[in-house]
Predict the structure of Threonine synthase.
Amino acid sequence: MSRWKGLIQEYKEFLPVTEETPLLTLHEGNTPLIELEHISKEWGVKIFVKYEGLNPTGSFKDRGMVMAVAKAKEEGSKAIICASTGNTSAAAAAYGARAGLKCVVVIPEGKIALGKLAQAVMYGAEVLEIKGNFDNALDIVREISETEPITLVNSVNPYRIEGQKTAAFEIVDALGKAPDVLAIPVGNAGNITAYWKGFKEYHEKKGTGLPEMRGFEAEGAAAIVRGEVIEEPETIATAIRIGNPASWDKAVAAKEESDGSIDFVTDEEILEAYQLLASREGVFAEPASCASLAGLKKQIASGEIKKGATVVCVLTGNGLKDPNTAIDTVTVKPTVLPNDKEAFLSHLKGGVTS
Ligand code: F0G
């Protein structure tokens, strides 16, 4: 078995790679496509999850960031900047460190999961908190990057989309063709844009088919579904707490061209899917990720997704990113036993081993 070399080398024929592009990598990509055996049986569809939480910094952002940072380096940039609900900042900080670039991340005050903040700090980024939300932060960094010598690495940077489209290639390679449906969380709408681009490029070259693209926003941040900017977006899924998605038009195009949909799911539906996925299938993904599985359930119930369909749900980030939501969702009440083997045995025989 040969060693996985990371996205830039593995997919260079599909990426804007030149002789001068540094072969930057943390060996991102090549994430597993896991079949959900129990839930598939119960729901009457064949479900796979693309577990992007196994990327080097624990989210799909690594795919886009390796490309964006490599190109920034190639172009002679000395520093990168991004606004982030957390995962982009972790990825930018890691790849910035790896490439020897300064990294500045701008995050919304008090609304970023603990693990993500820990990562940005450990990777040595300068962390700036804004008294505002992600949309406000993005406005500011976009303006600053226009006048200052610092490269913007949010998904409005086209190299981010190029890197992220590789996940679609991996899904098609694993299944032998495109699935019937791709279900994906939508925040700033970069990732749905990237997947659709990836599926189309692969189809053009290899005739592998196209899925229906089904994107899911959180109810309190469902700007695209409602057709208006949400000034004060709110959701438990802080990663997708975004009220004015930068790639709004491209998400709508993906939906229309693929005969798919952009829908929303409630926080309750997200948390239910979050817990079900971990407890029934052993897959721990962060809340925003679970908007895809929650959306699938909703659209099976509505009849929009047909029984027997092959569906891939993108799980965008690792559950360990957000330990607080896990602990708040499940009541942790350990059974207290005396320090005595007999007491343990009689407790286990009362349920677990009998
Ligand atoms: N899931 C997770 C875990 C995310 O972190 C994000 C976006 C999304 C889904 C939505 O992807 O924005 O391409 O539609 N996180 C960005 C960030 C905004 O700053 O980390 P999208």
Q: What stands out?
A: The chain is about 45% helix and 15% strand. The longest helix spans residues 190-206. The pocket of F0G is lined by residues 59, 61, 84-88, 155, 185-191, 239-240, 286, 288-289, 316-317 (CB under 6 Å).
